[in-house]
Every structure is written in C-alpha cells, then in structure tokens.
Prior knowledge:
Blueprint (H helix, E strand, L loop, with lengths): L1 H17 L3 H14 L4 H13 L3 H14 L4 H12 L4 H20 L4 H71 L7 H28 L11 H20 L20 E3 L5 E3 H10 L17 E2 L1 H13 L7
Antiparallel strand pairs: 1-2, 1-3
Helix pairs in contact: 1-2, 2-3, 3-4, 3-5, 4-5, 5-6, 6-7, 7-8, 7-9
Amino acid sequence: MNSDKAVQEKLLGNSYFSSQNYSKAITHYSNAIILDPLNHIYFSNRAISYFKLLNYSNCIADCLKAIDLNNNAVKPHYYLAQCYLFNNTRLALHKSLSHFRTAYHLAINDKLPLAVEIAQAYRNARKVVWEFDDNLRRLESQNLYSKLVALVNFHRASVNQSGSNNNQSTELADQANSAHMDTEHPGEHHTTIENSSQQNKINHEYQQEQTNNEENKNSNSDQINLHDIDHDDLLTQLDSLLLDAEHVAAKRPPVPDYYTGKISFEIMVDPVISPSGITYDKTEILEHLRVIGPFDPLTRQPLVESDLYPNLALKESIETYLDGHGWAIDY
C-alpha cells in the first residue's frame, strides 16, 4: 500500500534528519508526500528540514499546506511563526505573533513539553516586533521633524521675500512722487508727454500694490500675524520637542513585580492562579508539576493542573504593557 511505503519514506527521512543530513531528509519526505499527499506530518517534517537549511520560503509553503490539512498541528504553526519573524515587514511580524500564540495554545492543550520552548520563543518575538515598531515610530518622528523644519525655513524665506516686495513698493511710491514733481517743472527733463506717461504707469503699479496689500490685510485680520514669528526660536522649540520625545521613549522603568513569574522571574505569557492565590506562568508551573512533583513550589501544598485558573485580567494587562514596553522581555 502507498501509505505503508510513505511511512517507510518518512522513517528514512527521520533518520537522515537525526544525522543532520537535511537535504536527504527532504528527498525522502518528498517521496512520502507523493505517496500520501494528505498526511500533514510529511509536509510538517519537510518544512522543518527546509527551516534547518534556512530555506524559509519553502518552509512557509509546507507549513501552510500542513495547516491546511490539519489546523490543530502544533509544529507547522510554530515553524511558520519563526519564518515570518525573519521577514522584515510589519505584516509578517504580526503574523508571526499570531502563529506563536496558536502554537502555544495547541501545545498547552496537548500537554506537550514543547510549550515551554514556544512560550520563550513568543517572548523573544514580542521584543523583535516591538523593536521594529519602535524604530518605525522613530523614523516617522524624524521625518515629521524634517518636514516641520523645512516648513519653518520656507516661511522664513517667504517673509523675507515679502519684506523685499514692500521695499520695492516704497521705491515705486517715491518714483511716483518724483514723476509728479517732474510734470510741474517740464523744463528740467526731455518732454512733458514722456513724464506724464511714466507717471501714469508708476501710479497704476503703486495703486495695484496698495490694493493687494489691503486685501491681504483684510483676509488675515482674524489670523495670527505670521510675520511676527521668531523662526530661530521656533526651530529651537522643535529641537526641544524631539529631544523630549526621545528621552521619554528611552526610559526603562522597573517592570512591575506582579508581571513576572515566581519561578523564572521572567514576564509571564499565560498567568494562572493556584488555590493559594499565587500567580504562576502556566508553562513554568506545568513543567514544575511534571518534573518536580504535584505541589505548589512556594506553599508546598498539593497542586495539580486542574487546580489552576487563568488570570485573564493580569494577562490582558501584561499584553497592553508589552505593547508599549517590549524591551521589558529581557528584564
């Protein structure tokens, strides 16, 4: 039967995988897929082999196929999350977090020891995503700062140009007065006709300039007089605002103790409450119960998994905290 032959190919693939011959393992997993294309395990195993070879695109393709065949399989979600983490885009990074969460909950439900590893990987992924978002925020702030500085300098140049135009208007007025005097003493220049023509032209330009100034004055009567702005002072204020924002972002206040687990003292991923009222990170307390024994590590009272209840309020609070303090993962 093809399924039996497929199992044999899978076992050969596993053997080569164990010896770290991932290319050979891929060959045999591929043979198993040809013989039994509906078995998600073969796609999952081949995906992990691709991952070991840093072939993330093929790993993603096989993980997606395995998930399509069985959405409750832990490893495809776990390795898909890790692959997306290497894709330096915001969409891929947030997909990574989503698949880490799915893999974690599936591992917890199946009581798999792999849940401890997944929880730690999820913590690290939270930090990577926070650093990406924080760098993006800094870049956007710097771009906004550059645009505001350019706008201030543009306005400074506009004000200077306006002042130059006002000086030209004054010169035109002086010329108009001079021309008027020339008409009263025609013998001092060439001809009265030429002076009259020049006077009319200058008077027209001067009147037009005065009209424009009056219109601008009326339209801006209810607005701040932008000509009174101290541009150097405004640029100094912008510099101060940017420095203050960076100072606030760089602060690293102590992480609240109630966010950290009582065993590893790391920020908790999935806090649960014991009957004694003590909150533990779920993977850590389950590992303690499995390896050390069925008792509360702090009170030494008998404890089994069914005694634990999720601390949903604290979990939501931790998620919100990490959204703005991703650096705390390494606290």
